[in-house]
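Can you make up a protein sequence with its backbone structure tokens?

===
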Amino acid sequence: MGFYNVGVLVSRIIVSPWEANSYLVSGSGEAGECVVVDPGILGAGSIVAEIDRLNLTPVALLATHGHLDHIGDAHLLASEYDIPLYCAAADQPMLTKPSEGLGLAMVPLIHQFLGRDALPAIADVRDYEGVFELAGLRITPIAAPGHSRGSTLLHISDGAEELLFSGDVLFKGSIGRTDLPGGSMAEMQASLAAMVKRFDPGLSVLPGHGQATTMAAEIATNPYL
């Protein structure tokens, strides 16, 4: 559980039956503060334990998108630490009704996990509105539709090191599915092309599922790029 980068501290916690990645991220400028990228589902206890182990204080939850496997426990952590959740407006309906992002065919599965197609409302939900700073980090949200309408890349830097949290847009060797409500292969292709143009090949990419990679590795080997 977890790995660390020079300057920016990153700890990865794998949560949910879908093995989604949740990340604790902290910069060197604000000792003890962190953000939680994609709080996941069925893993809040593990996330809290890792927060305690590292003696961190969460100041915000950041969602790369609104699918249940990435935000299902957001209400628990938002309440536990009295912190906001940032999520693109287009994906916010999923925060309380998961089938908005997964489709009616997934409602029986949603009921298995939640007992109903609903999640408790979060008191403080914020849209991404430009660059902002938290926990010693400069956070640049970048709209990248394709997997969902509100899919958002999170470029995070402490001034020396840069990381890209790609959610379910880009994986090591693959990409996120585009057949769920709000998905679009055409938009995904445009988002991927924009990533190749925008980001340095050496940039580390931390995806919503699977292992970390780099833009250079994906450009060289990922068939979708």
In short: Confidence is low (pLDDT under 50) at residues 1-6.
